[in-house]
Amino acid sequence: MSQRLRSLLAILLLALLAPIANAACPVSLPSGTDCVNAAATKAITAHSSCRSVTNNHVSGQAIMIPVNTSTEWTRFYSNLPGGVTASTCTMSVTSVSPQAGLAVGATTITVTGTGFVSGAVVRVNGTNCSTSTFVSATQMTCDVPSAAAGTIASVDVSVVNPDTSSASLASGFYYVGAPRTWLRADAGVSVGSGNDVLNWADSSGTGNHASTSGPYPQRVLASANFNNKPVITFSGANFFEFTRMNTFQNVAGASAVVALRPTSTGNNQAIFSYWTGADGNDRFGFAINAVTGNTNRGTSPTGNFYLLATRVDGTGHEYIRGGTLTVNSPVIMAGSMNYSAQTAELAINGSVVSTGSNMLTSGSTSDTASLNGNFGAADTYNYFSGDVAEIFHFGIAITSAERQVLENYLKAKYNLP
Q1: How far is it, in rounded angstroms, from Cα 389 to Cα 332?
Q2: Where are the domains of the chain?
Q3: Which of 11, 14, 44, 415 has its CA 20 to 30 Å from the CA of residue 396?
C-alpha cells in the first residue's frame, strides 16, 4: 500500500471515528485524546501549538480529537470533519495574581489568559521569570525576577509561546519597593471565633506584625466596597499594636499609603501612629478630624485628613491637613515626610491636597529611642471607625511618582475610582 493511500485511509478513519455517541464528552478521556462538546468551542494545546476548535459537527455529538502524536494532531486540524472548524488560538493575558510583590525576593504569580502552549515563558518587564510553568492553555505560573532594591514601579507581564507569538498585560505587576510594613487583609490574617482578628502578619519581611489581645477587629471576607476582597473592620473600640517598631529608628523619612473606608465623622480618629515611650509624642501618623491647637505647616488650612508629626526632641506638634471625608466611601490616603528637607505631602485619592514646609524645625531628625506603634488608635485612645483593606509604611519619603504607582496598584486591585 502506498504512503499516499495510507494517509488517505488514516484521514478517513479519523473523520469516521471523531463523533462519539453523546453530546457531552466523557468524564475520563482515553489516553492521547481530547474532546469538544457539541456546539462548543475549546482551546486545545498539544505539541507546542494551540487550536481553538469549534464543534458544530453534523451529528450533533461531542467530537474526540487525537493528540497522542504530533502527526495525529496535525492531521486532525488539517483535515477536519464536517461542521468542525479550528483556528490558531488568540493569545491574551487578562490578569496576574498576586498583582504586587517586593522588589527583591521571590514572588510566585499566576498568569491567566488564552492561547498558552507548553514551553511558553512568562516575562516580567521584559525579563524571563526564573521559572515558568505551563499549567493549561489559560494559565501559567512563574517566579518573578527581582528588580533593583527599593524599586517601586508598575511593569508589563507577557507570555511568549515557542513560536514567538506573544501577548502582554500593561502594568500587570507592581514592584512595591522595600516597605517597613505591608499589611493586606487578603494575606497573613489569623482569625479566632466570630472572625475576630488575632494577628495580622507583615508581608514586608521585616517582621513588624500587628497583634491584639482584644477587643478584636473583625475580618470581612468579601467587601462590596473593595471589589469583594477582604477588609479588616475597626469598630471604634479596638486596635492593633505593631510588634517591631525599631525598624523605623534612624530612618531618612516616613511614608504611608492606605486603602480605607471611614464609617464615622468623629473627631480624633487615629488611623495609625508611631510614638516613643519616653515622651509619648507621635513621630508620624494619619488621623481623621484631629482636634489640635498645634501648628499647621501645610498649604491647606482646612480638611478632614491629617498627617501628624512631632519633633524628636518632644517639643512642638505639627501637621498638614486636607481633603473632604465622605462617610462610607473608600479612600486612598497617602502621605510622606522628608526629615532632612523638612517637607511633607498629603494626597487623597491620587490628588495632593496639602504640602508642608519647615516641618520638624528644630531638634534631632533621627530617632534612636524605643518606638511604639498602633494601628486603629493612638496609644489606647482616639480609635478609628471603618474598614482597612491594605497599608504600606516606608522608612523613606517616597517620591510623587512612587506614590502614584502604589495608588494605581490599590485602585486596580480594589476597583477604586
Answers
A1: 10
A2: 3-88, 92-176, 181-414
A3: 415
| 287-316 per-residue burial string, b: 16 or more CB within 10 A, e: under 16 | bbbbeeeeebbbbbeebbbbbbbbbbeeeb
Topology classification of domain 181-414 = Jelly Rolls (2.60.120)
Place of cell 488560538: 89
Residue 10 has a CB neighbour count (10 Å cut-off) of 15
| Pairing status of strand 108-114 against strand 139-143 | antiparallel
Alpha-carbon distance values, 249 to 17, 59, 92, 370 (Å): 74, 75, 46, 8
Q: If you count them, how many residues does the chain have?
A: 417
Q: What is the pTM of this model?
A: 0.84
Single out the residue of 139, 50, 58, 67 nearest to residue 96, CA to CA: 139
Confidence of residue 9 (pLDDT cuts 50, 70, 90): very low
H/E element, 76: helix 70-78
Is residue 376 within 8 Å of 384, Cβ to Cβ?
Answer: yes
Q: Which three cell numbers stand for residue 323?
A: 481633603
DSSP 8-state class, residue 252: S
The pLDDT value given to residue 67: 92
What whole-number distance in Å separates Cα of residue 85 and Cα of residue 79?
10
**Based on the number of CB atoms within 10 Å of its own CB, is 398 exposed (0-12), middle (13-18) or buried (19 or more)?**
buried
Whether omega before 217 lies within 30 degrees of 0, making that bond cis, reads no
Please report the beta strands in 89-131, taking only residues with DSSP state E, as ranges in sequence order.
92-97, 100-101, 108-114, 121-124, 127-128
Q: What cell numbers appear for 74 in the block?
A: 496535525
Does the structure show a pLDDT above 80 at 277?
Answer: no
Query: CA distances (Å), 118 to each of 136, 215, 417, in order?
Result: 8, 52, 38
Buried b (16+ CB within 10 A) or exposed e, 318-334: bbbbbbebeeeebbbbb
Closest CA to 322 of 285, 292, 347: 347
DSSP 72: H
Picking from 376, 266, 271, 399, the residue whose alpha carbon sits closest to that of residue 333 is: 271
pLDDT tens, position by position, 16-69: 445 666 789 999 999 999 999 999 999 888 888 888 899 998 889 999 999 999
Quick one: CATH architecture of 92-176?
A: Sandwich (2.60)
Q: How far apart are CA 249 and CA 362, in angstroms?
A: 18
